[in-house]
Structure formats: C-alpha cells, structure tokens
Design goal:
One of its GO terms (cellular component) is small ribosomal subunit. The chain is an alpha+beta fold and about 200 residues long. It contains eight helices and five strands; from the N terminus they run H-H-H-H-H-H-E-E-E-H-E-E-H. Helix 2 packs across helix 8, helix 3 packs antiparallel against helix 4 and helix 5 crosses helix 6.
C-alpha cells in the first residue's frame, strides 16, 4: 500500500512545502501516540467513513481525534498515571492495568479502545507517584474533562468521548512541555495529518 514511497513523493518532499509540513505532522503524531503506519491508517479509515456519511470536515477531525484519545494507553497518560504513552503501553503489556476487571495486555488492539462508562484500575506499585509529580498531573487533568480520576483508589472512569479543546502536546511546544496548546492549533495539526494520509493512501 505504501511501496516506493520515496520515488512517489520525492518531488513533493521539498523542505517547507505543504506536503513536507503535513508529513512531519504525521510522523510527530505517530511518535507521540506510539502508532505504526498500519494502526494510524486503520484509525484514519474509520474516521473517513464517518466523513463520507456526514460530509463535515470538522466532525471528521473530531472523530479522528476522539478515536486516538480513546485508546487505553492514551487514557492512562492523560490521567497522569504514566509519564508518556509509551510508559502507559508498558504498564498495560505487563498486566498492571485492568479494564472492566480484566487484564488488557495488547494496548494497540482496536477492541481495547475505552468507551464511556468503562472502568480502569491501575496497580499503584507501578504507576506514577502523584505526590512527586504534581505539576505533571495538574497540567494533564486541566484538559481531561471527560475523565474521572480517583488518585487514592488508582481508578479511572471515562465519562464521555474526548473532544478537541486546549491540550498538552509536548512536540508542539516551543518552550515548556507542560504548556497547553489552543484548540485551534490542535485542530490545524490534525487537519495536516489528515491531508498527508489522504495523499499517501
């Protein structure tokens, strides 16, 4: 599906070109969410099916974002129980996380996306110690209005599907990694990723 990528896009990959910017955005997204190309294309394809139904670009970007942020590993990171999405994936694969009272050891599987009402329990011996990471936890919980976190019981409940608003994306910050990014910039970033995926696939 993505054979001979270099030959196909060599003329477009000029530094500063629109395609270069979109491709760079896609690569940053994959790195942050710990996704390979196949996983990202699958999520994008599901979002694109929604776009075909409603023909609304804004709703398409919202749905694409919602699918990415509903992953179990991302929920753990946004809740402040992991330093990064990669750390969250390690916790899941080692069996330290329960989703609805069952172990989930394959964080990348689509069936392990978290749905509203799902209950998550994290082993307190292996997650971030909240008292030592107050700033990390506070900046993440400013964004997560769709998550109920109980720090004492180490539990998480997803109350609704994620929607684009001000978010913390370290790779979009020029200085502090704890700075929130405006919803307009987040939406523009996801639109660039979508443009790249449409051109490539």
């Amino acid at each position: 599906m993505i054979r001979n990528t270099k030959a196909r896009y060599s003329n477009k990959l000029r530094y500063g070109s629109q395609f270069f910017v979109c491709l760079a955005a896609k690569q940053m997204l994959k790195k942050f969410y710990c996704l390979n190309e196949r996983e990202l294309v699958l999520i994008f394809s599901l979002s694109f099916l929604e776009y075909k139904k409603k023909k609304n670009v804004s709703l398409f970007i919202d749905f694409f974002f919602s699918l990415l942020e509903s992953r179990l590993d991302v929920i753990l990171y946004r809740s402040g129980f992991a330093y990064s999405v990669l750390h969250a994936r390690q916790l899941i694969s080692h069996g330290h996380v329960l989703l609805n009272n069952s172990k989930q050891q394959k964080p990348g599987k689509f069936k392990f996306f978290v749905m509203p009402g799902d209950f998550i329990f994290c082993n307190p011996n292996f997650t971030i110690k909240k008292q030592n990471n107050v700033s990390h936890t506070r900046i993440l919980l400013q964004q997560t209005t769709y998550i109920e976190v109980n720090s004492k019981l180490h539990t998480i409940i997803l109350t609704s599907l994620p929607r684009i608003r001000a978010y913390c994306y370290p790779f979009l910050n020029d200085s502090s990694s704890s700075k929130l990014i405006s919803d307009k910039r987040v939406r523009a970033f996801f639109f660039s990723v979508a443009q790249c995926l449409i051109k490539q696939h």
